[in-house]
Specification:
alpha+beta; 6 helices; 15 strands; about 25% helix
Length: about 325
């Protein structure tokens, strides 16, 4: 009887070297995939941020067209008191802008109704704070990161809170903050930008002010910092504003030693960008800036040297309306 040749026994598993090779290959593939995913997410955040900035720019133009305004201010004192009444707005620039945008706004709308009170020698009705949605009977200052939400978003239902959906303004120019009429109806103008309520956030530095300022900022596409806004228009700033976590302005009351408001600025530092020591970027318009993934704003100096010269730009990963790439990357 013929014997069948014996077959070698099958191996029971991988050797240690083979396992290490397989693990190494998997690790390399995973690292390559993870890096690609991270890069794609970073690019998506940048695209979302740049898209937001583009839409904000369109909204600013639409607001200016609708209200025949030359600019959108980057500082607004509420309530908009007359000139000389509040040290926060000694020239009454907020009131002047409000009156320009809504020339038929009535004195009753500005002063409201209710129990009277006196601020720096001028008598007001307490309803003026309720009308402008100011949370206390003390004036507050909206900075640029808040004014774009106020003017581009419009009024909101106070019962729903400060970070609720924006409803635009009433077409009744004597009563712009009225909530009468449905969203999108002929009785309303705006909102000019559809602010997603989850991305409207009151900054901790504003909430800690005296009095507290709960007006929200619009958080950028990275979700770390708000979009900041600087205007070249005459709103008391003219690109001379610098947000600083230490700067503060006190509003004295009518009585000796009384302080009505302390306007401490933001919890971060940022200045409008310059292209030289004497010239701002986008000098006749405005700047909308996002801090980027690192959550840090640049120094405000782009250090542009000119055609053919060395370029050393600040900002690293900041995104802005006046430059086509990240501010740390020279334009190609």
């Amino acid at each position: 009887m013929r014997r069948q040749p014996t077959r070698p026994d099958r191996r029971g598993g991988f050797t240690l070297v083979e396992l290490l090779v397989v693990i190494t290959i998997i690790a390399i593939l995973f690292s390559l995939t993870a890096a690609a995913v991270v890069k794609a997410r970073e690019k998506a955040d940048e695209v979302r941020t740049r898209n937001d900035i583009s839409q904000l720019a369109n909204a600013i133009q639409a607001f200016k067209t609708d209200f025949q305004a030359k600019y959108v201010p980057d500082r607004l004192v509420l309530p908009p008191v007359p000139p000389g009444v509040s040290p926060l707005d000694p020239n009454g620039e907020s009131r002047q802008f409000i009156s320009t945008v809504w020339p038929r706004i009535s004195a009753a709308t500005l002063t409201g109704s209710g129990n009277p009170f006196t601020l720096n020698g001028v008598t007001y009705q307490r309803g003026v704070f309720d009308y402008w949605r100011v949370p206390s009977n003390q004036p507050i200052v909206l900075q640029g990161y808040q004014t774009i939400v106020f003017f581009l978003g419009g009024s909101w239902d106070p019962a729903a809170g400060y970070t609720s959906d924006r409803l635009g303004f009433s077409t009744d120019s004597t009563d712009p903050m009225s909530l009468a009429g449905q969203l999108g109806a002929a009785t309303r103008k705006g909102p000019y930008f559809d602010f997603p309520a989850p991305r409207l956030k009151a900054l901790a530095s504003d909430l800690s002010k005296t009095p507290a300022n709960p007006f929200p900022a619009f958080m950028d596409g990275y979700g770390v910092m708000p979009y900041v806004y600087f205007s070249s228009g005459k709103a008391g700033n003219d690109y001379n504003l610098t947000y600083s976590p230490t700067q503060s302005v006190q509003t004295p009351g009518p009585q000796t030693g009384q302080v009505l408001a302390t306007d401490t600025t933001t919890g971060f530092s940022v200045s409008p960008y310059k292209v030289s020591s004497s010239r701002f970027a986008n000098p006749n318009g405005y700047q909308i800036i996002a801090a980027g993934r690192d959550g840090l704003f640049g120094s405000g100096d782009l250090n542009w040297v000119g055609a053919g010269g060395a370029v050393s730009m600040g900002g690293y990963d900041d995104v802005a309306n006046f430059h086509p790439t990240l501010l740390g990357v020279p334009a190609q």
